[in-house]
Specification:
Distance between the termini: 56 Å
CATH class: Alpha Beta
Order of helices and strands: EHEHEEEHHHHHEEHEEEEEHHH
Number of strands: 12
Structural class: alpha+beta
Oligomer: single chain
Largest sheet: 5 strands, antiparallel
CATH topology: Uridine Diphospho-n-acetylenolpyruvylglucosamine Reductase, domain 3
């Protein structure tokens, strides 16, 4: 089968070539896509190669942090906010982090046997917004809305969040493996005075989830109001239901101590 390679040299050209996404396979770092192609589950007809599109930068723009969709996870290890940097340092191994991209991490569809999207938890906690284009044109939306919506036909361009003095906490549990699969990841952030608490959980289902019930009650057990853990090859739903309230409690305790 012949594959047509599309090689944009700017974000605008990438958006134009992508259109509504019909018949287009987006190629970022390839850590998710290439195994899918090798197994015959993905058969690209038109491949949008984003490596030269200028989307691989992390910059502090005044009071905003702006992260291009093609920014490697390895770059996030030095991100300005430790809650995001620490999450990035624990995804996969060094080889994966040098290739995998921010856009691919949050945009990839759910896998049949494990979750994807570890960055969702800290980005939700930071109040991040996703700028994407595709069906209906360009839009900016909270990351939790982007993750909960229909991501088909959307091309992620950037992720951004506001910088201000924060306290944070994080907790997680991972399966020992060369690629360090996550069983559950929790990230919490609040303003210095404790207000504007935001809690994100990933690794427990198809996408990361914002835990509004815990934000309101500050009771770790309420995480199961917001989250319905699933079974996969990494852990059972029952196990996740058991450990998740403890992880949320640990993250909240860290936040209170900072």
């Amino acid at each position: 089968m012949t594959v047509e390679a599309l090689l944009p040299t700017s974000a605008d050209e990438a958006a134009s070539l992508y259109g509504d996404g019909a018949g287009v396979t987006v190629v970022g770092g390839g850590t998710i896509l290439l195994p899918e192609i090798a197994e015959g589950r993905e058969k690209p007809g038109r491949a949008l190669m984003l490596h030269r599109a200028g989307l691989d930068t992390l910059r502090v723009d005044g009071e905003r942090v702006v992260i291009g969709a093609m920014t490697p996870l390895a770059v996030l290890a030095d991100a300005p906010d430790e809650v995001l940097a620490s999450a990035a340092r624990n995804i996969g191994d060094g080889e994966i982090r040098r290739s995998a991209t921010v856009g691919g991490n949050i945009a990839a569809p759910a896998a049949a046997d494990s979750h994807r999207g570890d960055l969702g938890a800290p980005l939700i906690a930071l109040g991040a917004r996703v700028r994407s284009t595709g069906t209906g044109g360009e839009r900016m939306e909270p990351i939790e809305d982007y993750l909960a919506g229909d991501r088909a036909g959307r091309l992620v361009l950037e992720v951004e969040y506001d910088r201000f003095e924060r306290r944070f906490g994080a907790a997680g549990l991972r399966r020992r493996h060369a690629h360090s699969y996550s069983i559950a990841t929790v990230a919490v952030c609040a303003r210095a005075d404790g207000s504007d608490l935001r809690i994100g959980v990933s690794g427990i289902g198809p996408t990361a989830v914002r835990c509004r019930a815990v934000e309101q009650s500050r009771a770790a057990g309420d995480v199961l109001v917001d989250v319905d853990p699933v079974d996969d090859a990494v852990a059972s739903a029952a196990y996740r239901r058991t450990v998740l309230p403890k992880l949320v409690g640990d993250a909240l305790d860290q936040l209170e101590r900072r």
